[in-house]
Amino acid sequence: MINVAWLVPLLPFIAFAINGLFGRAYLKKTTGLVANAGVLGALVVTVLLFLAQGGHPEPETVTLWTWAASGDLTVNLDLRVDALTLVMLLVVTSVSFMVHVYSIGYMAHDPGFWRFFTYLPLFVFAMIMLVMANNLLVLFVFWEAVGLCSYLLIGFWFERRSASAAAVKAFLTNRIGDVGFLIGLILVWHVFGTLDYDEIFAQAPAVASAMPGMLTIICLTLFVGAMGKSAQFPLHVWLPDAMEGPTPVSALIHAATMVTAGVYMVARFNPLYVFSADAMIVVALVGAFTALFAATIGLAQNDIKRVLAYSTVSQLGLMFMALGVGAFTAAIFHLATHAFFKGLLFLGSGSVIHGTDEEQDMQRMGGLFGKMRVTGTTYIIGGLALSGIIPLAGFWSKDELLGATLLAGGAGYLLFAMGALASLLTAVYTFRMIFLTFFGSTRMEADRFSHVHESPAVMTIPLLILAVGALFAGFVGVPPEHGLIHDYLHDTFLAAEAAGLMHAPSTAFVVTLMAISTVIAVFGILIAFSIYLRKRPAPETIGGAAPFIHALLVNKYYLDDLYDLVVAGGTRSIGWLLAWFDLNVVDGLVNLVGVVVSLAGNGLRRFQTGRLENYAFSVALGTALVLAFYIFMVR
Amino acid sequence: MNSETLLTLIFAYLAVASVVFAMLVVMMRNPVHCALALVGVVFHLAGILILLRAEFLAAAHIIIYAGAIIVLFLFTMMLLNVGVAERARQFHVQAPLAVVIGVVLLFEFIVLTGASIVVGAPGLHTPAWVAEQGGNVQALGQVLFRDYLLPFEVASVLLTAAVVGAIVLARQKPKRPRSSSEMGVSEWMAARVEKARKREAESAPRRGVTRNP
Amino acid sequence: MIIPALEYYLLLGAALFVIGLLGVLVRRNLLIVFMSIELILLGANVTFVGFAVALNNMLGQAFVIFSLTVAAAEAAVGLAIIVALARHRETLNVDEIDTLRG
Questions:
Q1: In this structure, is residue C101 part of a structural domain?
Q2: Which of B4, B24, B30, B57 is the best residue to mutate to test the C interface, defined by the most C CB atoms within 10 Å of its own CB?
Q3: Where residue C19 sits, what CATH number does that domain have?
Q4: Does this model's pTM top 0.80?
Q5: Min Cα separation A620/chain C (Å)
Q6: B26 in a structural domain
Q7: Rounded distance, CA B106 to CA C23, Å?
Q8: Residue C28 falls within a domain, yes or no?
Q9: Ramachandran quadrant class, A259 (left: phi over 0; alpha: psi -120 to 50; beta: rest)
Q10: Contacts of C42 (CB under 8 A, 6+ apart)
């Protein structure tokens, strides 16, 4: 079965190629079917691969070809199939397929239909290759490739200025992270002398004892790359703006798959990270801070998609927090469940936007539940899963990563406090969103409200399927620390166990934690219920009570403005300086060269008389000189 | 007077005479005289070649130079009717400088020759071997047609190309007007304008329109 | 064994060569320039044959055959060019043909 692993990335790529070549002129609406077929094929092959590899898959690689061989550096294009890859593949292909089906309905009336279904399979291809890479350089290449697809799809409606600006912002912010990644890659090559995963991992203990500082630097630079891709503070600013893209894109790329690449990467390099306690604590603190920070912003946003975007940032922060305390399985578990319920929420928000004729402002919604029962129901399921209500998917994974912080001890208690607070805020903003959107009396104009309609089946069926995932996906991790997924991923994270980062919690601990989590989530929902449905206290009173904090939250802590001032302004100033330098000094030099050459040409022109005898004379003179040289110098 | 002295004297005469004729070629005003002087050079050089026992080449020089090339020169002069500009200036302004360079070159050649720097290993084709082949012509034939057959054939291709090239170059251009496909753009436009003017000039009186000149 | 010594033949060749070169450099008449080129070739031929005999190598003589071929070809093409040029320009003076284009 491993021999057909190459089919997984190939099928979406074929779909991309067909749609890209023939989509505009010939296939038109058929592109949707082609893309769906390609991704469905990838999903089927993945499932077959998963079944064939059994309960404890050994890491296997298939070498497709040698991509580059230069000196000591040999880069093979390998496909790696192991437990972590298979989990990621299952998540990526299944969510991708749901989003592809959904997009047929969502994008039905868009003139760029074929273009959309060209980019989307390309993204799936790149993401699959990213997950299956067995080499740091290949990983980096597809890391950039998914970034490119993200750029293309955020800027899908490029005629909208804000969309193209958001695309550029996402691209540039990611570049900053990628510089870190690239430095990490070069350092790995320098220190380890190889870029292949297994060879790096094999050398990790030796390197850790020989030069621990270098290992920490490598881990941190790689983590900078992960921060960019997974939108961690302070590089998170691009993700909320990325919501300018079509909603299926937000669901697939900016919630379920691409933004989790950073989490995947750190988990993949767990044999390195476990040897650097300093890097681990940085990862955990950045993650926890981002989780709390983004959750607070999420409280004050009115755009339904932006709330979800900040929620994604926050949840990714929780995953990094778990990675930082060594709970790799918990992070991957949360990654998987999050993919389902956040994908569901995004697609649900897309359905709302679709049904309300492009309304995204929650302050102008309300009371939609009666009009959109399927969307509403599935949305609430997704919201409950996100808030962490037992027994939905989000509960199990979030509970586990909170528990992991407590078990880590030391700074873990601080992390737990931040994580728990973030969870509380998550429940609040999630149900604020649900109450504002679906319940209460509507704030829409009457005639617009009358046009609100449920989305077609092609959109609601993926919602239902993802809702089932959001309901039951968590059970792969039950009981906590000993579920299916823990067993499955056990071998991947052996290094963490060897480093003593795995803990065996007592039943009492687990049950207590579950109770605490549930209380936190229910408490959060009740707060939201009280404020946004009962209006006791009314939201305005709270905002009025602390106008400064409210302004801070609405304006996202003014980070965008700060970046604009410092980074963009600084760049602009440097640009002006360089432009002056270029115009006066560089151009002056260039013109000087031109003047000198032209003068010299004017002088030399006199030698070109066009007369035969002068040329012949030069030949004779040259001959005489050569002979003279021979006589006097050589002989 | 032994034969060596005799041969040296003959060489001296032939060498001096060919150099003198060569100088005449370069210095005389009338091109026809120059060509005749060139014939003198070639004849004396043929004598030198005979001294060297290269009888075939001596004959070949006379036939090709005196018989073909110089006759070609004379034909050309006849064709172009040269000689009328005899009174015009014959030498370039750079002549004195050129003479200096020439003298320097000659001096350099003398130095190099006196140094006798070029001494290769004696070859296989000794006078005995030549005699064995039956003489100079047979020996040359052996070398040319056995060892250097391909270059020889290539030389024949070169000659063919030269003949074709000479004919194409010297051919009198036909006087007929060129077809439009052979014309350049500006030429074609000019032809069109000319044609249009002619037509206008023909039709103008018929319409009875008086035009200002 | 050649009489007199090889050096004399080489000097004769050099003299012819230099005289021919001077002809090319000083004469204005294109026809005479061409004749001077023939002189250069003749000088080279003498040198070739001299070496061939002195070194007992027939190759030098065989090469003169090719030199003759080149001379003949050059004369044919060159004179054809002179004819065409004379028709076109109505002059045979080298220093009056200096536009470098047709």
A1: no
A2: B57
A3: 1.10.287.3510
A4: no
A5: 8
A6: yes
A7: 14
A8: yes
A9: alpha
A10: B41, B42, B45, B61, B65, C16, C20
- Is B92's Cβ below 8 Å from some Cβ in A? yes
Chain B residues closer than 8 Å to A613 by CB: 92, 94
Among the partner-chain residues C7, C12, C56, the one whose CB lies closest to the CB of B116 is C7
Within a domain: residue C55?
yes
Which ranges of A529-606 would DSSP assign to H, the alpha helix? Answer: 539-545, 547-554, 559-563, 569-581, 587-604
* Residue C99: closest C-alpha in chain A: A610
- What single letter denotes the amino acid at residue A6? W
What's the angle, vertex CA A254, arms to CA A62 and CA A387, rounded to 5? 110
Per-residue pLDDT of chain B (213 residues; tens, 9 = 90+): 688 899 999 999 999 999 999 999 999 888 899 999 999 999 999 999 999 989 999 999 999 999 999 999 998 888 887 655 556 788 888 889 999 999 999 999 988 887 755 566 778 888 888 888 888 899 999 999 988 999 999 999 999 999 999 988 888 766 555 565 666 667 777 777 888 888 877 765 554 444 444
Determine, yes or no, domain membership for B194.
no
The residue type found at A222 is: L
Residue A266: half-sphere exposure toward Cβ, Cα within 13 Å:
41
- Is B181 part of a structural domain of the chain? no
Count of the separate structural domains present in chain B? 3
CA dist C36 and B90 (Å) reads: 14
Taking an 8 Å cut-off on Cβ atoms, the answer to whether A624 and B98 are in contact is no
- Compute the distance between CA of residue A337 and CA of residue A342 in angstroms, rounded to an integer: 8
Phi, psi of A74 (to 5 degrees): -125, 120
Using one digit for the tens of pLDDT, what is the confidence trace for A61-81? 888 888 888 878 888 888 888
Residues B78 and B152 in one domain: no
For A73, the token pair is 């550096």
Q: Do C69 and B159 touch (CB under 8 A)?
A: yes
| Amino acid sitting at position A581 | F
C33 CB neighbours in chain A (<8 A) are 612
Query: Which residues, including other chains, have CB under 8 Å from residue A388's CB and lie 6 or more apart?
Result: A394, A395, A398, A399, A423, A426, A427, A517, A518, A520, A521
